[in-house]
Amino acid sequence: ADRVPANPLSLHPRRGGKKNLPIIEANLDDEQDEVTRSLKEKPRLVIVGGGWGAVALLQSLPTQSYNVTLISPQTYFAFTPLLPSACVGTVEIRSLVEPIRKLVARVRGHYLMGAAVDVDMSERLLEIEVYDDDKQQPTRCYVPYDKLVIAVGSKSNDHGVKGLEHCYQLKTVPDAQAIRRKIMSNLEKAALPTTTPEERKTLLSFVVCGGGPTGVEFAAELSDMMAEDVLKYYPRILDSEISVKVIQSRDHILNTYSEKISEYAEARFKRNDVNVIVNARVQEITPDKVVISLKSEKEGEAPKIEEIPAGFVLWSTGIAMQPFTRRLVELLPNQFHSKAVQVDAFQRVEGAPKGTIYAIGDSATLHVDMLQDLLELWDRYNKNSDDSIDFEEWQLMAAEIKKRHPLTKTYLSKLQGIFEEYDKDHDEKLSLNEVAAMFQALGKKVTSLPATAQVAAQQGKYLGKMFKKLAQQNQTLRENGMPDLDDEAYYKPFDYRHLGSLAYIGNSAVFDYQGWSVTGGLLAMYAWRSIYWSEQTSMRTRVLLMIDWIKRGIFGRDLSKF
Ligand code: FAD
Predict the structure, then answer these.
(1) Strand 364-366 relative to strand 341-343: parallel, antiparallel, unpaired?
(2) Mean pLDDT value of segment 361-370
């Protein structure tokens, strides 16, 4: 009779926290083995999210040092770079996902299908809602933590544009499924004899708002599908009736890549009939058109307003905070970033009790107070107090900055160049004003890490290694009756290594690594596929992906609408 029920939520657990909600521990089940039971005594590590950052953390954590609980609304990890391919059936959804439970099993952790909604930092309680598919309303409860890692990613930035409810977004697996359904539905409607040529043109007008990697890859996949499969199997649809347009606010697409790559992508799109409209801002979206304002080439002239008929619109323009990240930011002092929660160089959320809350990936942004550094370093390196520093002093100062902020490493590799750039009066010395301008630019460089899987995965891996070291250190300390250490005392700050950017641009791919760019046709596309293939989280998805690519090569894409 006193057996613990298998489902911890049915336990009538203790209540508490500011909202007096049930406090649940995910691992109360007494049918667990010895090792899992022993983990109950270990520090409670709660991970929020099941994407790139969270999975990299799971894969690098020590296996028996933390009592891990992962909370995410989706029961799987999704390989986002291949979502554009899934929208048009080049690969299948099942080939891109890995069940979270399989990944959590490595650390004998627990998975709860739910979402974080709030946090009580003073009592270290994370408020979550858990989903039971048979109940209409989610159940709210608290999960206690010793360490909390926020890896909830981002949502699309609406930029205050009207009519976004008429757009599709591409962030998740359900988004890709909805897009595939809509594309197939438009094609079938366009092929009906009852559809007028005018209606057909609108149905076959696909507009992508945003010329970043996601928008560009989606446009490329869509245009491949139209050329390779649609024209072959839909005799009523003519090539001249299909249009794919990319609307970009800047003067080039892929503007975070090198200029050579942007130009190559634009030329390739021109050849594939993908129309790129640059210097254009979306004003409004209605059920059948996109209203844009085009910047005039002549200075002082008012922008031109244009209407583009559209049967499908993808909105893919930058990132914004998830509701949970926004809630966290509201609870903290001195958070002023609009797109993510500010963290320090150890991925600790600024303003939260030290060593308890960390954030990684799209939901986090590094905050560096370079002004503080400037005040400290100036007095130290301005040795002869002549209110300027020479090149030798600058070298010493730069070494100190690199130590404090490893992310400045690449930028500070050209010391002479930087010195000359900021020595505006060419007196071979930098005045306080000149150094201040340099620090301002440096601060921007340090904090502007891109929102990519690469950054999220490296930060997740970094935290995993840091927590491993912490577990080892604290074991020894506790055995000697000493308190736990601060992160700085046993680990180094996060250091990002850029491994290059990749993009698919229609039976071709581009690759960018620190100024080196590789562009090319089929060979580059196969290189693109092999890189993504090798980055898969399991052999299962590798095999499935390989089968999908072969299937598509032999039989073409599946054009059924579900
Ligand atoms: P995500 O991977 O987005 O994971 C967030 C997780 O948190 C999800 O599981 C979500 O369900 C969960 N979550 C959200 N809210 C809550 C909550 N309240 N409680 C609990 N869980 C929550 N990057 C590249 O480097 N290369 C590419 O080629 C590339 N291509 C991309 C293509 C597409 C279509 C997209 C959308 C993105 C692409 N990116 C690419 C960007 C990359 O996917 C993101 O930068 C990366 O996913 C960020 O990882 P993350 O862990 O921060 O968040």
Answers:
(1) parallel
(2) 87
Whether pLDDT at 2 is above 70 = no
Q: Which two structure tokens, joined as six digits, stand for 129?
A: 């809602």
What is the share, in percent, of the chain residues with pLDDT greater than 90? 53
Q: How confident is the model at residue 302 (pLDDT cuts 50, 70, 90)?
A: confident
Examine the domain organization and report whether 437 and 456 are in the same domain.
no
In angstroms, what is the span from residue 388 Cα to ligand 1's centroid?
Answer: 46
Task: CATH number of the domain at 58, please.
Answer: 3.50.50.100
Q: Note down the domain range covering 445.
A: 368-449
Contact 176, 284 (CB under 8 A): no
Residues 6+ positions from 195 with CB-CB distance below 8 Å: 189, 203
What value, to the nearest 5°, has the Cα angle with vertex 337 and ends 333 and 339?
125
Q: Which atom of ligand 1 lies at the shortest distance from residue 52's CA?
A: 51
Place of tokens 């499924």: 177
* Domain assignment of residue 237, yes or no: yes
What is the distance between the terminal CA atoms of the chain, rounded to a whole angstrom? Answer: 49
311 and 339 belong to one structural domain? no
Q: Kindly give the distance from the C-alpha atom of residue 88 to the centroid of ligand 1, in angstroms, as a whole number.
A: 20
Lining residues, ligand 1, CB within 6 Å = 48-54, 71-74, 80-81, 83-84, 115-116, 151-153, 170-171, 213-214, 322, 324, 361-363, 451-454, 456, 502
**Structure confidence by residue, pLDDT tens digits, 335-357:** 888 889 999 889 999 999 988 99
DSSP label at residue 14? -
Q: Are residues 123 and 171 in the same domain?
A: no
The reply to whether 273 and 185 lie within a common domain is yes
Q: Residue 401 maps to which CATH number?
A: 1.10.238.10
Give me Rg for the CA atoms of the chain: 26
- Domain end: 422, 449, 476, which one? 449
pTM of the model: 0.88
**Ligand 1 centroid to 396 CA: how many Å?**
39
CA distances from 514 to 258, 303, 517 (A): 9, 35, 8
- Give residue for tokens 């370093």: 377
Q: pLDDT at position 332, please?
A: 93
Helix (H, G, I), strand (E, B) or coil at 193: coil
Residues 311 and 338 reside in one and the same domain? no
Atom of ligand 1 nearest to the CA of 82: 32
Domain termination site, one of 283, 317, 351: 317
Comparing C-alpha atoms, which of 223, 212, 224 is closest to residue 171? 212
Query: Phi-psi region for residue 362, left (φ > 0), alpha (ψ -120 to 50) or beta?
Result: alpha
If one residue of 52, 90, 254, 511 were mutated to test the ligand 1 pocket, choosing by the most ligand atoms within 8 A of its CB, it would be 52
How far CA 328 is from CA of 148, 244, 555, in Å, comes to 12, 39, 49
Best probe residue, ligand 1, of 362, 496, 505, 533 (max atoms within 8 Å of C-beta):
362
pLDDT for res 338: 82
| 279: alpha, beta or left? (left if phi > 0; alpha if psi -120 to 50) | left
- pLDDT at position 124 over 90: yes
Tally of domains within the chain = 3
Do you know the residue count of the chain? 562
- The structure tokens 């048979």 sit at 134
